[in-house]
Specification:
alpha/beta, Rossmann fold, 2 domains, six-stranded parallel β-sheet, two-stranded antiparallel ribbon, about 45% helix, globular, transmembrane, Protein SanA, affects membrane permeability for vancomycin, transmembrane helix, Cell_Envelope_Assoc
Length: about 250
């Protein structure tokens, strides 16, 4: 059977041949036969299914477990995912996540905040910047625990479970990311509820939303293959100690 290059996924067969540029037909950029056109359409449909299946799975897993700070259940731990630094300080998107975590703490929804982010090089330290910001928002330093190896969402979820012993948590991130975070933390063994931070629909928001379509595929692979994080390391007692301290304070 004749094979066609990727650009063969044109609308020949759906659009009358007389409306297609003749050069495309001559160069074999569209199938010439009815069977070829049918197989092209089938290939496009199959590719669409594979592309959308991971996103559909994430929505099914997390759909009923997202909401606002007011609607969040009481959990001992909030997990805040990193979202980048600008000149050593949280980006606006990360600052909004941290504002939400501080509100969860102030309203008694959580006792401890686990900040998880990238510290893969000395000059870039997301968790410490997140800690500093939260302290300025009124969260006691002793109620904040840092994970310095949360290089992506899967790593953060697995490390929260295996390294810090988190079993149940409120997850804090932007709305376009929250369902993937819930799905991955669920797969890692954490019973999760998500608070999605609302943002204006600016260019960053649209980029984040588009990126999620591709990130959903990686998330599905992570759940299927369950790779170890980039860095696992020994268990840490930070969350346990912070909770014990919180329970002893009147």
């Amino acid at each position: 059977m004749r094979k066609f290059p990727p650009r063969a996924l044109r609308l020949r067969g759906l659009v009358p041949s007389r409306l297609l540029p003749r050069g495309l037909v001559r160069r074999g950029l569209v199938p010439r036969t009815r069977r070829g056109r049918r197989r092209t359409v089938q290939a496009v449909m199959l590719a669409s299914v594979f592309a959308l299946a991971p996103a559909t799975w994430m929505h099914a897993v997390a759909d009923s477990r997202t909401g606002s700070v007011a609607g969040a259940p009481e959990r001992e731990v909030a997990v805040v995912f990193g979202a980048g630094l600008w000149k050593g300080r949280p980006t606006p998107y990360l600052a909004h996540r941290l504002d939400t975590a501080a509100e969860l703490y102030r309203t008694g929804k959580v006792k401890v905040v686990l900040v998880t982010g990238d510290n893969s090089r000395a000059e870039y330290d997301e968790p410490d910047a997140m800690r500093t910001y939260l302290v300025r928002q009124g969260v006691p330093d002793g109620r904040i625990v840092s994970d310095y190896a949360g290089f992506d969402t899967w790593d953060s979820c697995v490390r929260a479970k295996k390294i810090f012993g988190v079993d149940r948590a409120v997850l804090v991130t932007q709305g376009f990311h929250i369902k993937r975070a819930i799905a991955l933390c669920d797969a890692a063994g954490i019973e999760s509820y998500g608070v999605g931070v609302a943002e204006p629909h600016d260019s960053v928001w649209y980029y984040g939303g588009a990126r999620e379509l591709f990130a959903a595929g990686k998330a599905a692979l992570d759940v299927a293959l369950r790779p170890d994080p980039h860095f696992l390391g020994p268990e840490e007692t930070g969350v346990t100690e912070a909770l014990a301290s919180a329970d002893t304070v009147p």
